[in-house]
Amino acid sequence: MRPEYYLLLSALLFTIGAVGVLVRRNAVVVFMCIELMLNAVNLTLVTFSRISGDLDGQVMALFVMVVAACEVVVGLAIITAIFRTRQSSSVDDANLLKY
Fold it and tell me: For residues 20 and 9, what is the distance between their CA atoms, to the nearest angstrom?
C-alpha cells in the first residue's frame, strides 16, 4: 500500500475527532474524540517514519501514547469528580468545581 493512503486515513480520523470535540457536550465522548485525534497523529508519525526509514517517528509515537495514557487518568478523575457533584458528565458543568 502507498503511504498516501495512511495519511488520508489519518487526516480523516483527525477530522472526525476534531468535529466530535467541537460538537459533543458529553465529557466521556469528548475524551474519546481526543484519543481518536492522538491516534491519528500516531498514524502520521509512524507513516513518516516508515517513509524516511528511521525510527524517530516511532519514538515520538511512543511518547504520544504515554501522554495519552496520562491524559486519560487525569481526565477520568476530573469527570468522576464532576459526576459526583452534579450527577452529570456534561462539559458545561466543568466550571462548577470551583469553590
Answer: 17
